[in-house]
Design goal:
homotetramer; 352 residues; alpha/beta; Rossmann fold; Dihydrodipicolinate Reductase, domain 2; seven-stranded mixed beta sheet; 12 helices; cytoplasm (chains A, B, C, D); AGPR_AS (chains A, B, C, D)
Chain lengths: 352, 352, 352, 352
C-alpha cells in the first residue's frame, strides 16, 4: 500500500529532513511540495544534495486556497506541515476540513491552553476546537492516542529530548523536589531563516545561553509532565546554543524526595522502554553524545546517581531534526497508519 | 543469497563506515571483526553509536595466523582489509592464499611499481606477484576489471575525487598542457590515530597545507592517468587540511592545448557518466560542496570554462569515508559479486 | 601628539576590528562613530565584548550631510570608511572636500578604471578625479606613495595575501608563464550582513567554492601586478569558503620560464621584506597556517620549489580582518602620519 | 624595574599563553624556558606563531636538578610552573627552597587536604608543609593573601569561572538551599596532550559530558566556598566538552532560602566587583558569551532571577587559557609584585 502525502514548508530544515526520510520510506510517496518563498522551481535547485533523488516541482504556499486543498485531496491523504508557528494555525484547519490527516511540526497545536500559547509565543492562538482535536505526538509516551489520532501536534525538539528522559519518573509519581534542565542545541534548530543568532561568525567557536526564561518549550514540557503526574508541575529550563549543526543534549538534575540507586533508575527505563526501538538506555557509566545519534531517530539516555549529593542526573541526546522533528513525525505517521513504527527510520547514526 | 564477510581493522574510521554500510546491505552478513588494539570486547563499547545494531565480538589482529584464516574461510568468503598501509601488505596474501576474495582499503596494492611505493610510502613494498594480481578499484573507470577481479586495491580518497573528474579528459587523450590540483580534505581522512595534526585545538578554526610535495596519492593519480592516456603523465597536487570531519573538495585547473566550451565539457561527462548512479554532474553554474555528499557515496562534479584564461576548471566533491573509502569498497564488492552496484549504498546525503 | 579620528561603518566587522586596534593605539583617539542601521545607542550594547572599553555614542550614517562633516572636521582630522562598496564612493569625496584625510576600506577606489569597476562590482563607479587621487594602500609595496597620500584605498583581503607573495616576482619582471591562485577565506570576510552563504548551518562542517569567475579582487590583483611588471598581467584566481571565522590562506602556483631554486626564492623575499615587521618568510619546509596569524597584522609566507614539476608554489596566510582590512588600514595610517608603522599593531597571534 | 622569570612547561597551552602575555608585559623578561619533551631547539620551531617574537632556547625539564635551579636563581627571581599535576608537586618545593617565588598553574597545591587530593587526582599529594605555604590565587577574592604570598596555587579554569560568580553570595552567608553548576568548556582546557577526547573527528560537531562525578575542580570549589561561608559546602557540578578551542561558560542555578530581586543581585556584584578591572557584570537581560572574552582576562557575569521558580541563575564566561590559567597567573604576579594588576593584561577580546 502506498500513502500519498503533501509537504508544506518543504524548504525549511525540518521539511528537507522529512523529504530525506520519506524518499526512502517503503509505504509513502511524496506527491506535492509547497514552500513559503518561491526562489526556485525545483527542490534540487534549492537543495542540490537532492540531485538525482527528486524531481517534484515546488509551489508557493500562497496557492493553498480551500479549492486547491480540496483538489490535492483527490490524490493525497495526509499532509505534513513543516511551517512556522503562526502559519500552521490557519493551515491545519483547512487541511483537516478537507479530510486530510495532518501532522503539524510547528508549535501551534502543542499547548492546549490558548492563553498560555499567546503568553509564550506572542502570537494569536489557534481555534480552541482544533487545539482540542490535536494529539501530542510524543511517540513512546502517547502511542495509543497517536494511533487513534488524525491530527498530530509533533513535539518540540527540546521537549522531546527532555520528556523522554523524565516520563518514567513523572508517570510513576515519584516524589520530586525539583528539576533543573540545562539544555544545549545545535543551530539547525533555529531553522533556515537568517538572523544574527545563526550568522556563522557570531556562532562559530562561541557558546551562549539564549531565550533566557522565555523558551516556548517550557510550558510544553510542564503541560506534559502535569498530565503524566496528575499534578501541576513546574520546571527550570535553560537553553544554550552549541556551535554544531545538529544535536541536542539535555542535562537534567533531579532532586528526589527519596534516594534512588543506579539499579532502580535502570529498572524504570527498562520497564518503560525496553521494547522501544528508538530509545537506547546507556549502560551505567556510559553517557550519550550528540554525534552518536547524528542523522538517526534515536534518543540516547544516560543516568548518574550522585552519591555525594543524592541527585539523579539524566543525560538525553537526540538529533533535533530527526527525533526532534522530522524523524518523530514519520514515527507518528507509522503509528497512525498502523505500520511498524521503524519504517523508513532505520538509519544508523553517522559517526564520526 | 547472503555473503559472509570478515572485516579486519574494524575500529578505524573506514572500518566503522564499512560496518555502517554493510549492516544495511541486503546481501551481506558481517561474520567476524578484527581490530588492531583490543580496547574493548564489543564494537558498541568502542563505538556506542552502534548500540542496538551490532553485537559481534571483536578480536585482535594478532590472532590472524594462517590456521585461523583457514578456519575463517569455512564461514566467510570475502575479507575487507581496513588496515593501515604496511599491514595489508602481509595480510592480503594470507587471505588470498586461503581462498578469500580480498578488498584492501590501504595503499599497499595501489602502486604497481614497488620502487615507487617505497619512495612515497617509506615502507617495504608488497610482493610483486601480489601487486600484479590486484585490480585498482576505481569503480566507474575500471568496472570490467573489478567484475572479474578477486583482489581489489581500493583507491585513495584524494585519488578517487580527482581521477573521476579527470578520467574523461585523459582517456580521450585530449591534449593537456598542465594540470594543477588543489585538494582539501576533512580530518577523518587521517584516521583515528592520534597526532598533533588531528588534535582539536590545532585544527579547529584553522586551515593549513600538509605533506607538501610528499602526498602518496600523487604517484597513484599519475599511474592511473598514464594508464588512461597511454603516455607518462605528471600532475601537481597540493593537499590541505579542512577543519571539518568528512569531505574532500578538489579544485582542478586544466590548461588544454585547444579551447573547450562548457557544452563540450558537459558532453564528455554525459558520455562517460550518464548511467553511473554515483556520479552527479552539476548543471553549468552550480558547484559541488562537501556537505552535499555527506554520508553518501556520490561524487559530485562541477565545471567552469574560464573565458578570460581559457582554462577548464573542475570541482569534485566526495565524502572521504564513503566514496573515498568504505562506500567505494562496497560498490566494488557489488561489482565483483555481479550485484546491482547501488546495493546498500542508496543513502541520501545528510544536509544540513 | 594625538590624532582624532572618525569611523564610519563602525558596526561592521572591519569597523569593529579597527576600533579594537585604535583603542590601544598610543597616538589615536576615536572621536565619532557612525553606523548604517542604528540598532542601539552605544557600541557596547551592540558588541558587548567592548564593555568597559568604549562609551562613545553611535550615530546614523544618514546624518552625514555636508554641514555635519564640516562640523566633524573641527575636532577630527581623519576618517576611516569601513562602509560597503557603493557607499564609500559618495562619502569619501565629501570627507575629502571637507579637508579630511581618508582611509577607505571598501573596494570603491581600488580599481583605477571605472569601466572595470562597473563590470566587476555591478555598480556605478566613483568619479574619475577621485579615483585618480586615491593611493592603493598595499603597505609594504607602495610605502612611499602612502606616506605622501591623504586618501588611501585600502586593499582587498584576498588581494593583500596574494600580492604580498607575488610582488617580488613581478617587480623584478621574472618571466612567468602562468599563475594560478587557489584562495580560501574564513566567513568573516563576508561581513556582518546576513545571507544564506554565511548562515551557520550552511557553512559549518562544509566547504565550497564561491563567486566562480566573478570575484572582484581578480581585476584588483591584475591591476597591481600589471603596474609592478609593466606589462598586462592576467591571473587565474578561485575563492573558497572555509568554515572558520578569520583567516585567508592562498596557495599560488607559479610556472616560470626558468627554473628557480629554494635559495633564490628565499633570497627574493629576503631582499624585499627583511626589514618589514609584518611579513614573516617561513624557513624552507615550514608552511603558514591561518591560526598562526590570528588576531595579528602578519602576512606569513612559505614557499616550495617542486623538483618534479619545476613549479614555484607559494603559501600566504593573513587574518582577513587585520592585515586584510583594519590592521593594514592602521598600518597605512601610521605610514601617512610618519609614525612607526607598527604603532598599535604589535598583537601576538593568539594560538591555539 | 624588570623581573626575570623562568617558565617550566613552556610548550603546553598554558605555557604558550603565558609567553604571549609576558612578551608584552612591561616589567617582565622571560629568561629561561623548560619543556617536558624536547622536540625542537627553539620555541618558534614548535610554535611558529611566535616567529619574530622570541628566540630563547628551550631546554628539557629533566635538567632541573637542584644545582641547575640554584644557578637559575642567579639571573631570575620567579618561576611559573605550567607543568601537569603530579609534576609541580616535586618541582615547586625545589624552586621554593632555592629562593624563587613560585606561581604554580597545576592542581597540585590547590587542595589543602592531601587526602582529598589523592582521592580526586589519584596521585600522591604534595608535602603538607608546602600545601600550607601555598596561597590560592583567586585574584579578586583573595588579593591580600596573594600580595603577601610568594607561592601561588593558581586556580583551576572551571573553579575560577564558578567561584567568581558565587563568591558574593557565599561570603555574605546568604542562605542557599542548593547550587547546581552546569559547566561547559572548550577543548584547549585539556591541554596539548593527545587523547581520543581531543581528537578532532571525535569532538567536531559533537557535544558531550565528561568526567561525570569525577572532576577534580569539584573539591576545589567546595573548599573555597566553605572557606568563604564558614560552613561545609557541597556543590553539584557537571562538566561538558564544547567543540570550540577556548572558553568556559558556566550556568549556575541557585536555590535560595529567601527570594532575591534582580536589583539585589546587581547590588551584590557591584559592591564586590565595581573596582575590579577584569570582572564585567552585565546589565540585566544581557548574558555573557565565550567569544566575548576570547583572548582576554575578563570574567563576564550575567544573572537572571526567574520569577516563575524563584531561582537565581548566574552565567559566567572566561577564556580558560587567560583568566582560567595564564592570565590570572600574570594577574597574581602583578599583585605579588605590588604592580597595577592590569599590567600586560589589557588585551581587548577578539570578536568575531
Amino acid at each position: 500500500m502506498v500513502l500519498n502525502v503533501v509537504i508544506v514548508g518543504a524548504s525549511g530544515y525540518s521539511g528537507v529532513e522529512l523529504i530525506r526520510i520519506l524518499l526512502q520510506h517503503p509505504n509513502v510517496t511524496i506527491r506535492h511540495l509547497f514552500i513559503h518563498t518561491q526562489e526556485q522551481e525545483k527542490l534540487d535547485e534549492l537543495y542540490p544534495h537532492f540531485r538525482s533523488f527528486i524531481n517534484i516541482p515546488i509551489r508557493s504556499v500562497s496557492q493553498l486556497a480551500d479549492e486547491k486543498i480540496a483538489e490535492l485531496k483527490e490524490t493525497s491523504e495526509l499532509v505534513f506541515l513543516a511551517t512556522p508557528s503562526g502559519v500552521s494555525k490557519d493551515l491545519a484547519p483547512k487541511f483537516l476540513n478537507a479530510g486530510f490527516k495532518v501532522i503539524d511540526l510547528s508549535g501551534d497545536f502543542r499547548l492546549k491552553d490558548p492563553v498560555l500559547y499567546e503568553e509564550w509565543y506572542k502570537k494569536d492562538a489557534a481555534e480552541p476546537r482544533f487545539l482540542e482535536r490535536s494529539v501530542y505526538g510524543l511517540s513512546e509516551v502517547f502511542p495509543n492516542q497517536i494511533k487513534e489520532g488524525c491530527f498530530i501536534a509533533n513535539p518540540g525538539c527540546y521537549a522531546t529530548s527532555i520528556l523522554l528522559a523524565l516520563a518514567p519518573f513523572y508517570r510513576r509519581q515519584i516524589p520530586i523536589r525539583s528539576v533543573i534542565i540545562d539544555a544545549k542545541s545545535g543551530v539547525s534548530g533555529a531553522g533556515r531563516g537568517l538572523s544574527r543568532n545563526t550568522h556563522f561568525s557570531e556562532v562559530n567557536d562561541n557558546f551562549k545561553v539564549y531565550k533566557v526564561g522565555k523558551h516556548q518549550h517550557i510550558p510544553e514540557i510542564e503541560q506534559v509532565l502535569t498530565k503524566l503526574s496528575g499534578k501541576k508541575e513546574t520546571v527550570q529550563m535553560m537553553t544554550h546554543l552549541l556551535p554544531i549543526t545538529r544535536g541536542i543534549l539535555s542535562t537534567i538534575y533531579l532532586d528526589l524526595e527519596d534516594r534512588m540507586t543506579d539499579e532502580i533508575v535502570a529498572q524504570l527505563y527498562r520497564e518503560d522502554y525496553q521494547n522501544q526501538p528508538f530509545i537506547r538506555i546507556r549502560p551505567q557509566g556510559e553517557y550519550p553524545e550528540t554525534k552518536q545519534v547524528y542523522g538517526s531517530n534515536f534518543c540516547d539516555i544516560g543516568y548518574y546517581v550522585d552519591q555525594r549529593t543524592g541527585r539523579v542526573i539524566l543525560f538525553s541526546a537526540i538529533d533535533n531534526l530527526m527525533k526532534g522533528a522530522a524523524g518523530q513525525a514519520v514515527q507518528n505517521l507509522n503509528l497512525m497508519m498502523g505500520w511498524d513504527q521503524t519504517l523508513g527510520l532505520t538509519q544508523i547514526p553517522i559517526y564520526p
